[in-house]
Amino acid sequence: MTTSTTTTVALFGIVREAVADALGLDEDEVTPDATIVGELGAESIDLLDILFRIERKSGVKVQASDLADAIQGGIPDEEFGDENEIVTAVGLAHMKTVMPQIDVEALTGKLHAEQVMSLFTVENLAGVVADKAADSAAS
Q1: Which domain, by its residues, includes 126?
Q2: What is the Cβ-side half-sphere exposure of residue 40, based on CA atoms within 13 angstroms?
Q3: What are 60-99's pLDDT values in tens digits?
């Protein structure tokens, strides 16, 4: 196992524990593919609690805005979503890089911007945390 793989596995454990503790769940309920908002029932205040717990355990500071930045990838709002706040093909293509589990074809023309976080999984969160940890280590 490489160091980055070891780090990713360790960070996943921290993320899993943080999600379980914040939401009052058993860790075995917090699977990699469980959606944090949709399936596990987190609300925005819970997400802040989860991020705080991750920082406390790992030393990696991830803010809610970092999640939004990862999902949107620097794409301007008017290119990410259309006038009806439906995520565009450009937005979906980027989301697929962060959330590989999404079915772009099924979501094309249907995904409202406010529904995006309902697709974000525990594994996706662990990936953002790992990226932030790598960025911190590199600087």
Answers
A1: 3-138
A2: 32
A3: 999 999 999 999 999 999 999 999 999 999 999 999 999 9
Task: Report which of 10, 38, 9, 36 is spatially closest to residue 23, judged by C-alpha positions.
Answer: 36
Count of structural domains, the chain? 1
pLDDT band at 2 (very low <50, low <70, confident <90, very high): very low
Q: How far is CA 23 from CA 3, 73, 83, in A?
A: 30, 28, 35
One-letter amino acid for residue 115 of the chain: Q
Q: Which long-range contacts (CB under 8 A, 24 or more apart) does 44-49 make?
A: 46/22, 49/22
Q: Which residue's structure tokens are 């094309």? A: 108
Judge whether residue 46 has pLDDT over 50: yes
H-helix segments, 64-121: 64-72, 77-80, 89-98, 104-107
